[in-house]
Design a protein that fits this description.
This protein folds into 2 domains: 47 residues; 105 residues, no CATH class. The model has no long low-confidence stretch (mean pLDDT 89). Helix 1 packs across helix 2. The protein is mainly alpha-helical and 165 residues long. The two termini are 35 Å apart. The protein is 63% helix and 4% strand.
């Protein structure tokens, strides 16, 4: 990876700070115009907690499950393509759950998200069977849990295994 030019670093920093400023105005200052400070802070902290917990859980169920393959590329004797690594180290879950897909923004289709991150998440349910069939054709392990409960069960098993080390 090439080092960034000074102008690019400065521009990135300005964009980052401006984005944080816009977020604070939108999430804190504007609500303060209409509501007391205590309620703004309570709602801000509550929504931050729920959003963080949801995002963490989605990523745990996609990556930290028994079926996901963990490979250290520095010690991997085989040379695998990036796409194969993405499919074998990631797991989809509850692909048929439309409400979960809407709430999670399609991140329950983690394999498709990794392979086609620029596609709209509404396309993931359409391409998932195609990706799964292609993986099967090429002998690549494609894993998905049919339900949220099955994914939670696998994650719990993974946690027990990690606790045993």
């Amino acid at each position: 990876m090439e080092p960034l030019e000074d102008g690019t670093v400065a521009q990135t920093l300005v964009t980052l700070i401006a984005g944080k400023g816009v977020f604070l105005i939108w999430a804190v200052l504007i609500p303060l115009l209409f509501h007391p400070l205590v309620w703004v802070l309570v709602i801000f902290l509550l929504t931050s907690f729920i959003a963080s917990l949801t995002l963490a859980l989605i990523f745990q169920l996609s990556h930290c499950v028994v079926e996901a393959e963990f490979v250290d590329p520095t010690n991997d004797p085989t040379s695998r393509a990036w796409q194969i690594h993405q499919v074998e180290s990631t797991v989809d879950f509850a692909r048929g759950n439309r409400l979960l897909r809407l709430y999670a923004g399609g991140l329950n289709h983690q394999i498709e998200h990794h392979l086609y991150s620029r596609l709209p998440h509404t396309m993931y349910p359409r391409i998932a069977p195609i990706v799964e069939a292609a993986a099967s054709t090429h002998g690549i392990t494609y894993t998905h849990h049919p339900t949220l409960r099955a994914a939670l069960r696998s994650h719990t098993q993974w946690l027990k295994l990690m606790g045993a080390y």
